[in-house]
Amino acid sequence: MSEKRLENRLNQNTSPIIHAPSPSDHPSPITHHGGKPRIAVYWTGSCGGCDVSFLEVGEAIVEVLSRVEIVFWPALADAKRSDLEALPPGYIDVALINGVIRTEENREMAELLREKSKYVVAYGACAHLGGIPSLANKWGKEEIFRTVFGPGFRPASPLDGNGEATLPDLTERAMPLEDVVRVDYVVPGCPPPAPLIARFFEALLSGEMPEPPYVFANVKALCEECPRVRHDDRRIERIVRPHEIVPDPEVCLLEQGLICMGPVTRGGCNALCPAAGMPCTGCLGPTPEAGDPGAAMLSALASLVRFEDEGEEYFAREDEVLEALADPLGTFYMYSTGKYRRKR
Ligand code: SF4
Ligand code: SF4
Fold this sequence. Notes:
CATH superfamily of the largest domain: NADH:ubiquinone oxidoreductase-like, 20kDa subunit
CATH architecture of the largest domain: 3-Layer(aba) Sandwich
Structural class: alpha/beta
Bound molecules: iron/sulfur cluster
CATH class of the largest domain: Alpha Beta
Strand content: 5-15%
């Protein structure tokens, strides 16, 4: 009963979306030109954090960058769209694209990079799943413009002739990269953590890239690598937010009432957040077994929210516990609204 009510709250503004990624006809293997694979790095609708994240690997980034040929990386070196257009198809070995697809320009650049590259990597949660920006799919773009810029605002092309700088129009919804081009690899995270960036570059530089499609993260759930203790008879009698308690330093956060997405999220980050006392928010994306992260977490919660005694008289109290969840969409789909939910 409780699970159903929570699901209804989620469905108030969004509905499930079905995707059909088609990882067919994979191109030829990566060629190392003079020992150096050619790479491109580009951001679409991005906060910039993914571009900065390469520094997470520390001094090793100097070694990595010395062993690749950077063909196109606007955040690092001046490069124009015309430079990319001038390249022959398939010239770039690997294009790492971060950010959500939110404008027509985002879509065009993703398609251009796809054409010029043997392999495309969705780098970071926005490119992988839509990311935090895709939570905006709860509202239509007209409502977003009205709320942010006020009534009467009209987006237009900056080159529409009147010489005034304006904002580009938005696509109808914020999309993960796989909605507009074929994606071969994913380096997940918001931004990707150092161990997964290292895994990707180790594979690239050794010439031993896995068969696509492939996600550079663990298949098993984060709980498997979390240092916190889980008890067999665990149950949740109240839901709390991180600022409301000082959690026990050793016990599973979910048992303490904090909604931790660890049971349904891929591992690979060494459980940095739960180890530091913050619940996992799911940035590496769901495990293959979990599938839709919200549905899987809802199911897990429905079995965990219970009291010592059972019976119909406890149903209402269980409902109250679940009602305390302040933001079901932002909690269960913080990074994946673009992939798993969409506006009705
Ligand atoms: S995945 Fe996170 S760090 Fe990367 S662009 Fe999106 S919001 Fe920024
Ligand atoms: S704290 Fe989170 S990641 Fe760690 S065991 Fe509990 S649910 Fe799993």
